Amino acid sequence: MKSKKLQSSSQNSSLIGLKNSLPDHNKLKNSMRKVMIVTFGLYALAGFVVHAQNLILDGSFETPVVSPGGHAGLTSVGPWNVTKGTVALYSGSARGIINPAQGNQQIDLDSSSDALIGTTINQAFITIPNRVYEVSFNVGWTGNPSQNPGVKLTAEVFSSDGTKLASLDATPPQLQTAYGPIQKFTFTATTSETTLSFRDTSSTSFQVGVLLDNVSVISVGDSPKIVQGLADQQVPIGGKAVFSVGVGAGDPATYQWFYNGVALTGETNNELVLEGVRVRDAGEYSVKISNQFGSVQAAARLLVSEFLVEIFTAVELKFPSSVGKKYQIQALANVNDTSWSSVGEPIDGTGQDIFKLISARETTAKFFRAVELSN
Ligand SMILES: [Ca+2]
Asked: Ligand 1: distance of its center to the CA of 14 in Å?
């Protein structure tokens, strides 16, 4: 006889064993995990001195190299555009000209006649919108001392759509002996390219030149700031751990992850993903986030849980049997159920007590009986 046939057989009342040997044989999970000491670390390193990069090319007007005494009437100066008038480059200690503020050369926005007033040079550079930049330069002058009160140089910054972002009117010192103190102003970029322009706005032009040197634009930024720190991760063996760190908007930053202080090759994103973790992967994971203004470091621990031990139990049933009879064990998941379902194959009677083990993994039933199948 095969089981399919037997399941539809009528059942007599030979009801024998009916009780689960345990009060609840649902899966019992061993909760004996190791007690983990969890530590959380967020360490800020002291900032280190970094010299911000000058975004202006040749802010010292060292190219092209001109012979001592200088060249006037130039319509281009290295990376600078001369958009109005002509300029002069002076090299070294040109006669009658103050020494350069930086390097060996300086530029003269050569307003030597009324026709050239408003001489303008500019240079575009890459910027990051919403970042603050600082413009600095030195201004001096050359020419007829009686004209000095009218000498003025206007520095202006424009976004790529032509909007003026900031400006500064700079005047050289009264005495025509050296450059004045460095001039500074800041602007906030709105576009990915910005133009710095210098325009001779002297109210007098005759026999007066505005000298300019040591032009610099630097990003005024901060070291990265962590806004979302690392959190410790506890995962089971074979699990997945994700360490993620967030920094504030602003300076682009680079990332390097470390495991117990050793740099992890290729792990240079703001997230570190560990899959299929093993016990030996446990330890401290840290990330160093750097930009041109400094760096910050954060660390957290990975805890790898031991295997979970699950305990299953079995029901052992006992019932008397007769030779030539067949018996079917049946079960209910709930005592209020009315429909018994068969568990396993029919069992041939032996004339003795039959003992039967039923795995708790294979049924959620709690109540059992054995019925004698009719022939
Ligand atoms: Ca120079």
From this structure: 111
The DSSP secondary structure of 90-139, one letter per residue, reads EESS-TTSPPPSSSSEEEEE---SGGGTT-EEEEEEE--TT-EEEEEEEE
Taking the centre of ligand 1 as the mean of its atom positions, its distance from the CA of residue 89, in whole angstroms, is 10
Centre of ligand 1 to C-alpha 51, Å, is: 19
Kindly report, residue by residue over 74-126, the tens digit of the pLDDT: 888 999 999 998 899 998 877 678 899 999 999 998 755 555 568 999 999 99
21 assigned to some structural domain: yes
CA of 104 to the centre of ligand 1 (A): 5
DSSP string, 140-203: EEEE-GGGGGG--EEEEEEETTS-EEEEEEE---SSTTS--SPEEEEEE--SSEEEEEEEE--S
- Pairing relation of β-strands 76-77 and 341-342? unpaired
Claim: this prediction has a pTM higher than 0.90: no
Alpha carbon of 90 to ligand 1 centroid (Å): 9
3 state SS of 72: strand
Residues of the chain by 3-state class (helix, strand, coil), percent to 5: 5, 45, 50
pLDDT in tens, 248-267: 766 668 999 999 999 999 99
Q: Ligand 1 centroid to 5 CA: how many Å?
A: 104
Show the domain range for 351.
Answer: 3-29+310-373
* Residue 35 maps to a domain: no
Return the C-alpha torsion angle 201, 202, 207, 209, nearest 10: -60
What residues contact 46, with CB distance under 8 A and at least 6 apart?
none
Residues 293 and 316 in one domain: no
**141 CA → ligand 1 middle, Å:** 14
